[in-house]
Design a protein that fits this description.
This protein is α/β, with parallel strands linked by helices. It has 2 domains: 122 residues, Rossmann fold, CATH 3.40.50.2300; 95 residues, Arc Repressor Mutant, subunit A (Orthogonal Bundle), CATH 1.10.10.10. The protein is built from 9 helices and 12 strands. A 5-stranded parallel sheet has the order 2-1-3-4-5, with helices on both faces. The two termini are 36 Å apart. This is DNA-binding response OmpR family regulator.
Length: 224
C-alpha cells in the first residue's frame, strides 16, 4: 500500500481529503503543520508527500526544503491557493514536483499522485538494490541476506543507499554529514564513524563488500 504523508492545518478539509485518499486505496498519515510532519517523517516513511503551503509553525515551502536535505527522491505535491508565478517557481526550486490549486477535486489529486509515483525514480529504481549478496529495500529500510531481514533506521538505509549508488567513488565526510545531519549540532565526525562501523557489521557476511575509510577525505564502498 502506498503511504502518503499529508500536511494540512484546516481540520475539516484535512478530514475530507484524508478520508477520500483512504477510500482510493492509499494509507494516509495526517499532520497539522510542517514541524509536525518533519518530526514524524522518519517514522511515517512516506512514498509521497502532499503538502499545504500556508501553515502555522512551519510552512510547506520550508518543510519541503528540509525534507530535500534528507531525501532527494521523495515526490512532493504542493496544495495551495498561491499560484502566482513567483510562488510556483519558488516551490519547484525548493524541491516540489507538482502543484494542485485550491480548491481542487479529489479525482485530480489522485491522478497527480498516481502519475508522480509511476514516474518516481524512488519507486522505479530506489526500492531494491542488490549489494553483493544483500538486498537493500530503501523504501522499507530493510537489509535482506538470504532468509534474514534486518530493519535499518532511516539514516542507516539512506547512507548505505548513497554509498552504493556512488560505489567505487569517494564520498566526502562533509557531504554525508551535510546531507543527513546538517541540523544535528551534536552529530560529529566520530558519530559518523560509528554509523559506518555499524553498516560494515551489517554487511559482514559478504566479504566482497568493503567500505574503505579514505583518511582525511571520506568513504568508498566497493564490491569485488
Amino acid at each position: 500500500m502506498i503511504n502518503i504523508l499529508y500536511v494540512e492545518d484546516e481540520p475539516s478539509l484535512a478530514m475530507i481529503v484524508a478520508d477520500s485518499l483512504e477510500a482510493n486505496g492509499f494509507h494516509v498519515v495526517h499532520c497539522n503543520n510542517g514541524q509536525e510532519a518533519l518530526d514524524s517523517f522518519s517514522i511515517a516513511k512516506p512514498d509521497i508527500m502532499v503538502v499545504d503551503v500556508m501553515m502555522p509553525v512551519m510552512d510547506g515551502f520550508t518543510l519541503a526544503a528540509k525534507i530535500r536535505e534528507m531525501d532527494t527522491l521523495l515526490p512532493i505535491i504542493f496544495l495551495t491557493a498561491k499560484v502566482q508565478t513567483e510562488d510556483v517557481v519558488r516551490g519547484f526550486r525548493l524541491g516540489g514536483d507538482d502543484y494542485v490549486k485550491k480548491p481542487f477535486k479529489i479525482e485530480e489529486l489522485v491522478v497527480r499522485i498516481e502519475s508522480l509515483l509511476k514516474n518516481s525514480p524512488k519507486m522505479l529504481f530506489g526500492q531494491k538494490l542488490m549489494i553483493g549478496d544483500y538486498t537493500l529495500d530503501s523504501l522499507k529500510h530493510q537489509l535482506i541476506y538470504q532468509d534474514e531481514m534486518l530493519k535499518l533506521s532511516f539514516r542507516e538505509s539512506e547512507l548505505l543507499r548513497k554509498l552504493y549508488e556512488q560505489k567505487d567513488k569517494v564520498i566526502a565526510r562533509e557531504e554525508i554529514m551535510r546531507a543527513y545531519w546538517s541540523h544535528d549540532k551534536y552529530f560529529t565526525g566520530r558519530s559518523l564513524d560509528v554509523f559506518i562501523s555499524r553498516i560494515r557489521k551489517y554487511l559482514s557476511q559478504d566479504p566482497r563488500i568493503k567500505i574503505t575509510n579514505i583518511r582525511g577525505v571520506g568513504y568508498m564502498l566497493t564490491v569485488d
